[in-house]
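Quick illustration, no need to memorize.
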Amino acid sequence: MVIVSSVSGSSVSCAVPRRLKKRANNKRNRHLRQLNAPPTLPYPKPSPTPLLPPSSRPSSSSLSPYQFIETAIAHLESSSQHLSHDPSLLLSILRHVTLPSHIRRLRQLIPLFLLRRHASLFAELVQLYCSHGLVRNAHHLFDQMPERHKSNVFIWNCLISGYAELGLYDEAVALYYQMEEDGIPPDRFTFPRVLKACAGIRSVPLGQDIHRHVVRSGFGNDVYSLNALVDMYVKCGDIQAARKVFDVISERDLISWNSMLVGYSRRGLWREVAWVLRGMLDAGFKPDSITISTLISGFSQSSSTKFGLALHAWAIRHALIGNLSVGNSLIGFYSKINKLALARKVFESMPRKDLFTWNAIISAHRLDRQIFDLFEQMIQSGIKPDKVTFISLLSSCADLGLVVDGKRLFNEMQRKYNIRPEKEHCGCMVNMLGKAGRVKEAYDIIRSMPSTAGPAAWGSLLYACSVHGNVEVGEVAAEKLFDLEPDNEHNFELMKRVYRKAGRVEGVERIERMMLDRGFEL
């Protein structure tokens, strides 16, 4: 009730009871508290039923991201159907998922009609599939969607990128051309993805065709697309085309400079490397760890000691020596120029060592018995060896004549570390056993190989037969090599030596006739 206390002219004064005034103040304070409250988790309430029941709802601060998603999915799986049909709730959960197993469980909860009805939910699921290597699942889902969902270039970019990341380059390129045929206009993120696939195929004509599409689509000045073109031409071996594109880039970034450095260094064009480095520094860019490690790897291939030492000094001056990729490249560089002590010094100075570090230093000691001590240190440090580790170890056993150690490591590789022997491992064993005169054992290794042996393994076996005089196995190895390498004269000479050592004149004459038929000179 309002009580009129006084009237003066046109002014009316009202006296408000204290009870009503206090209620209005409380309402205003509650409203202000809601406005200033910290943001809550972005899971909207689909119904009065909470995401987690009060008895099983721990505080968000006590859960890790994995536990939170696991708990949310588990509750969705056990809850009534209306929760799993809420697109906003599902979208919020999908945006926090990081494991393929969680993606699969959520997909089972989402009905197909919901994905067809809500394009954003479908796009998020496709993106998750592709970023976790499940591109086949993403493509299968894509094929079940209505045409209006397929007009989104984001979806096509995800699929092209997913295939390219898995090394399925032909599928990525085919998808791009299907996208073009369907009239979906590309954006600036489409071309770097498809150009990566072109680089993987190593096809310059294909890359040139995509280059024309880049220009025709209006991205001829886009640095993102131009950098991808430089990288594609470099990887395809057309360094001149890469340089032409590089010269067109008006605002080069670090990726632009690094791409040209990679191209020139891999071809040993050190004058051009120096030119790019000078231009890079003049433009205000400093070589980073990627630049330095790439260049050092290139110098390793050319045995350019002077440049390698200069880059090592640069890395020290600019505090890059602790970087893993730089350290690993330096170990490889010094081992290739036979500076084992310097490789060991770099290794010991590295504050952190990964699998590549250990593999690099173990490979550097292939001709040194210290390789076994390094392998033990690697195991003790908690780093699990891989197939590359054992290739270096078995190669070392072959070079040093350590048959017992080689056989032990070959068995350990399979039984203890669950690594299946590949051609390279078996080739090392054939070489090791052949050098030791155990030709029959070497032949047994080839016959037990999971895949067909190549020229390297059969060549090692034939060489062992020529040294130790085993005609029976030598004939088998030679027959295989004559089919695999019909123009390799060395294989015929080795088989002649096998027959000559065994006193088989008719065998020597038969091999000589075969050589004449193939155009070889005796």
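The longest helix spans residues 18-36.
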